[in-house]
Write a structure and sequence with these properties.
By secondary structure, the protein is of the alpha/beta class. Helix content is 49%, strand content 16%.
């Protein structure tokens, strides 16, 4: 088994506000050989309810709050280690596509010894009204209880703008590639693949 602490993973970050389309594009890219997609929010939601960390996640998400950094990073490390041991993620061959983590500069700094970040795809959606509409549509489609309450949605968006957006500054303009996420999903995917092609992936 490849130990997570012994290597840095070649990584692409999918970055943007909730509802910007990261999950949709990440799932598509994750089907391409040589790429492994990990969405932190989905991983939290798919935990068994009897897992202690699942109760922590539900407690915070129901209030529109983020799970503490230490818990989130440990959960991510444990998950990735498990995927490696199962052979689902092969770090020597696969690119790691991360969605939803790191979510603030502190997490980015903590994870810097684990990730070799080659590119950050920033899903830009400046219209908060459109973001809220997308989140509410997703809530109905995917039965996400944490995406229903408008107050909770706005709190999550505030947290993103205050704490998460500075991650772009942490990685800097050389790594950050802006994607217009108001485009159709097909056009967003085309934009991503076009950038990746020019970067030599």
């Amino acid at each position: 088994m490849v130990e997570i602490i012994n290597m840095k993973y070649r990584t692409i970050l999918l970055f943007g506000a909730p509802g910007a389309g990261k999950g949709t594009q990440g799932k598509i890219l994750g089907t391409v050989p040589g790429f492994f997609h990990f969405a932190c929010g989905d991983a939290f939601r798919n935990m068994r309810i009897d897992q202690p960390i699942a109760r922590v996640f539900l407690d915070y998400s129901s209030r529109g709050q983020l799970v503490p950094d230490e818990t989130t990073i440990q959960f991510w490390r444990d998950s990735i280690t498990s995927y490696v041991s199962q052979g689902r993620f092969r770090p020597d061959d696969d690119w790691l596509i991360l969605d939803g983590i790191p979510r603030n500069p502190s997490q980015a700094e903590t994870m810097s010894s684990l990730l070799d970040v080659r590119a950050v795809f920033y899903f830009d959606m400046p219209d908060r009204g459109e973001v809220i509409k997308r989140i509410q549509r997703r809530a109905l489609r995917e039965n996400r209880l944490d995406d229903i309450n408008l107050e909770v949605i706005n709190r999550r968006l505030d947290d993103y703008e205050k704490g998460t957006a500075p991650v772009l500054d942490y990685y800097g303009p050389a790594l950050v590639h802006r994607i217009d996420s108001l485009q159709s999903p097909v056009k967003v995917l085309h934009s991503i693949l076009d950038i990746m092609t020019h970067l030599g992936y």
